[in-house]
Write a structure and sequence with these properties.
By secondary structure, this protein is α+β, with helices and mostly antiparallel strands. The chain has helices spanning 3-13, 30-41, 56-66, 84-92, 95-101; strands spanning 16-20, 48-51, 73-76, 79-82.
């Protein structure tokens, strides 16, 4: 299985996937911490988090997969939503909660 196939399998087999630096309990950057906090504020406590610092192939492969160069990256139902700033903006206008309510 190629790295792209692996990533595709991850984002399509879990309703909410967050590629981040660190873990939700121990984020390794401020943006990843914000992303995890936004999901928790939306009531999502059981999301699939992948620590990109543990695997360079995943870290580089996700950038190509989503055509998004930075982390974190949020996927909902297999679709890239964006990073921490987009998540925060969507949360503030209620859009993120609507996306997550359908799960």
């Amino acid at each position: 299985m190629t790295i792209q196939e692996q990533i595709h399998q991850e984002v399509t087999s879990h309703p909410v996937v967050l590629f981040m630096k660190g873990t939700p309990q121990f984020p390794q950057c401020g943006f990843s911490a914000t992303a995890a906090q936004v999901l928790k504020a939306c009531g999502v406590t059981d999301f699939h988090a992948i620590n990109v610092l543990l695997d360079a192939d995943i870290r580089e492969g996700v950038k190509v997969y989503g055509n998004w160069p930075t982390f974190p990256q949020l996927y909902i139902k297999g679709q890239l939503v964006g990073g921490a700033d987009i998540m925060r903006e969507m949360y503030q206008n209620g859009e993120l909660q609507k996306l997550l309510a359908d799960l």
